Amino acid sequence: MIDVPTLVEQARQGRPRAVARLISLVENASPHLREVMAALAPYTGRAYTVGLTGSPGVGKSTSTSALVTAYRKRGKRVGVLAVDPSSPFSGGALLGDRVRMQDHATDPEVYIRSMATRGHLGGLSWAAPQALRVLDAAGCEVILVETVGVGQSEVEIAAQADTTVVLLAPGMGDGIQAAKAGILEIGDVFVVNKADRDGADATVRELGHMLALGESRKPGDWRPPIVKTVAARSEGVDETVEALEKHRAWMEERGELAARRRRRAGDEVEAIAVAALRSRMGDLHGDRRLESLAERVAAGTLDPYAAADELVDGVTQA
Ligand SMILES: Nc1nc2c(ncn2[C@@H]2O[C@H](COP(=O)(O)OP(=O)(O)O)[C@@H](O)[C@H]2O)c(=O)[nH]1
Ligand SMILES: [Mg+2]
């Protein structure tokens, strides 16, 4: 049995096991989530979320770990959510990340969780926001969301944050890759990591050109800065935090932070509604209603749109 009110109370007090339990419920798309989210709702909306995305090996986990240290120095309680949308199991690809996060394993003010979301019905749009809500209610002031790769799903998750960081590294052919995956559009802050390697300045220049090409900014618009880092030695990390804080301040000034959060909430509600409809539709499959509609469409006595209308009406009135 799951005692949701007790779990939520413990999570609010910052008890790591309760936080982990609640995130597992999200990961498993538990039927208890409805109750969990209702209980959490009043305690959310405080955390500032930062998404990190970029090709595997670019240094996301190393940067995340260095950012955790930087925010801890500033006295912030920090959450880290590593999301793997390509896997139905947490672990695996994230195992190495856990090793890199070891520095923070004994810090009670740092919460680190990985989560897999493959196979969720519309899970991408709601799983990460719900896990963030758990960390938010647990008092995390900053939450870093790291995705494992740079596919479309990863980009979507990273873009769900308040501020999105896109990482590149020299010599990875990243510029072209980034443009293809459409990640230049979602970057609020760009980090060229591995600046200790040859070609970092060339990567910064190339990126600068690409950003300028895609630019159609009005005065006062946000111009994404490019920060050079050596995450492995924590170099440039304070500059990254500074860029993040600037972006946050700019968003707050413009009302953009609230607007982004409203858009995100809208996407989440839509995803839940669509998932609910889909599962009811699923129940109808093999149902006499669909069968008889299909017969009439196949026989040409009913058009497919009218048949779909009938089906949708049946589902929404069920
Ligand atoms: N030379 C160099 N190596 C780095 C730097 N940052 C990370 N790495 C190394 O790059 C590899 C991949 O880093 P990781 O953080 O796991 O990348 P992720 O896959 O994007 O999370 C690891 O071996 C890191 O030690 C850096 O600034 N310079
Ligand atoms: Mg990683």
UniProtKB/TrEMBL annotation:
Top-level division of the source organism's lineage: Bacteria
GO MF term list: GTP binding; GTPase activity
Xref: Gene3D superfamilies: P-loop containing nucleotide triphosphate hydrolases
Keywords: Chaperone, GTP-binding, Hydrolase, Nucleotide-binding
Record-linked NCBIfam families: lao (TIGR00750)
Homology family: Belongs to the SIMIBI class G3E GTPase family. ArgK/MeaB subfamily.
Protein's recorded name: Methylmalonyl Co-A mutase-associated GTPase MeaB
